Amino acid sequence: QVRLLESGGGSVQPGGSLRLSCAASGFGFRNHAMNWYRQAPGKEREWGAGISPTGEDIDYADYAKGRFTISRDNVHNMLYLQMNNLKPEDTAVYYCTVYVVTDYWGQGTQVTVSS
Questions:
Q1: Cys bridge to 29: 23, 77, 86, 110, which one at CB 3.0-4.6 A?
Q2: Residue 42: CB partners within 8 Å, gap ≥ 6?
Q3: How do the residues of the chain divide into helix, strand and coil, expressed in percent and rounded to 5?
Q4: By CB neighbour count within 10 A (0-12 exposed, 13-18 middle, 19+ buried), where does 65 fall?
């Protein structure tokens, strides 16, 4: 049973930082690419960052480039998203996702950026 559990969200002021974590289980984590998405209030979910199984290949959405860093720990089956210089428009629920025959999503973690 594939399970993804995000954590690390919270409320920060503009310019602040957060590190999101995603604990994965129930599948061969080291063999699958992983992604972070987000969904802001009243908006559709949008992709933010992706990482290959080995971590060698990484890609970011334009809004994440230069501010967000995706990484993974294949020993502990963990996915991370380091977010720096956060802006109010980064306020959203953040999800980690994996495709294993079908798409799986965690329950999400809320990030609120406000002064």
A1: 77
A2: none
A3: 5, 55, 40
A4: exposed
Length of the chain, in residues: 115
The first and second tokens of residue 82, run together, are 């380091």
Residue 83: Cβ within 10 Å count: 26
Q: What percent of the chain has pLDDT over 70?
A: 100
- Could you give the CA distance from residue 96 to residue 100 in angstroms, rounded to a whole number? 13
SS (H, E, C) 6-39: EECCEEECCCCCEEEEEEEECCCHHHCCEEEEEE
With pLDDT > 90 as the criterion, what percentage of the chain qualifies? 99
